[in-house]
């Protein structure tokens, strides 16, 4: 193969694979960050607070304080557990299940967003 063909092949390969990279990355993360942020701000922030620390304006008046999503306990829970809590809610407090309001994808999106507020820790 002469040099020209070789360079051409390298450029072609780069052009072919470059656009694939972001897609491959997006697929490895189920949730969509941008959408998750909007969902959190619209539905969760009033209780859990803008930063997720559980100090939202509504949360202040509740008998059971909203969970601090930045806490070690929450960060140790796997994504799947957060997903289930958000979908089904917790018993005996204001954190009702969101199954009827949010879609499966919405919940994945919001879990992904919560993970950016406080990265997961190993269990
Ligand atoms: C009306 C107030 C309120 C709203 C709105 C609310 N939550 Fe909660 N959330 C709570 C309370 C209260 C708890 C339970 C605290 C406890 O049991 O210790 C909780 C618990 C949680 C937990 C469990 C944390 C853990 O470590 O167990 C997650 C995750 C969570 N909420 C996410 C969300 C998401 C996502 C939304 C929006 C879709 C949301 N919450 C909306 C009040 C609220």
From TrEMBL:
Keywords: Heme, Iron, Metal-binding, Signal. Coiled coil: none annotated. PROSITE patterns: CYTC (PS51007). This is Cytochrome c. It comes from the Bacteria. It comes from Candidatus Nitronereus thalassa. PANTHER family: CBB3-TYPE CYTOCHROME C OXIDASE SUBUNIT FIXP. Residues 31-118 form the Cytochrome c domain. Residues 1-26 form the signal peptide.
């Amino acid at each position: 193969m002469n040099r020209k063909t070789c360079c051409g092949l390298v450029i072609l390969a780069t052009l072919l694979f470059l656009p694939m990279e972001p897609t491959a990355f997006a697929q490895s993360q189920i949730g969509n960050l941008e959408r998750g942020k909007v969902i959190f701000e619209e539905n969760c922030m009033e209780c859990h607070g803008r930063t997720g620390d559980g100090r939202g304006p509504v949360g202040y008046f509740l008998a059971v304080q909203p969970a601090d999503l930045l806490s070690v306990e929450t960060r140790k829970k796997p994504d799947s557990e957060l997903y289930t809590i958000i979908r089904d809610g917790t018993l005996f407090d204001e954190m009702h299940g969101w199954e009827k309001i949010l879609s499966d994808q919405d919940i994945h999106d919001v879990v992904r967003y919560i993970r950016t507020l406080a990265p997961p820790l190993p269990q």
